[in-house]
User: What shape does this take?
Amino acid sequence: MYIIIAGGGIAGSSIAEELLDHKHDVVIIDRERSVCEALYARNGVVTMHGDARNIDVLREAGMDRADVAMGALYRDADNLTFALLAKSIGVAKIMVNMRDPAYEDAYHLAGVTHICDINSMIRHKVLIELESPVISVVTSLRHGEAQLIMFQVPPTWD
Assistant: This one.
């Protein structure tokens, strides 16, 4: 798959590394030239220095042929702009890293198909770790309606 990631910070770069390990074609767009250079030096990911909120930058990155657009920018307003532009170009699968749940409806209206609610996942993980240390939440599904969990079977269970 051809995947464009807006933002080369911790979230964007770690997602890119996983995708590269799974043999996907990835381009990271970041406003900081030094970030682009460091990412390329670290793992060879294709980077583009530019503003992912600019439609000309997205077109130059090949957004018109992207299978997935992933917004991993620090501000939800920036991810929302990126998502709207990706939708207008015709990307079928648009994902964002949501920080503020107040943006959830706006993301849906903008055509975002997958929202990763990091804060919600962290809250759930902390609660489960404190209250049920043998159970771990792997991820939340369907906007928190379901969770994929792992649990340890005690050795005394047969």
Q: What stands out?
A: The beta strands are 2-6, 25-30, 46-49, 68-71, 93-98, 114-117, 135-141, 146-151. The helical segments are 10-21, 33-43, 55-60, 76-89, 104-109, 118-131. The CA atoms of residues 95 and 114 lie 5 Å apart.
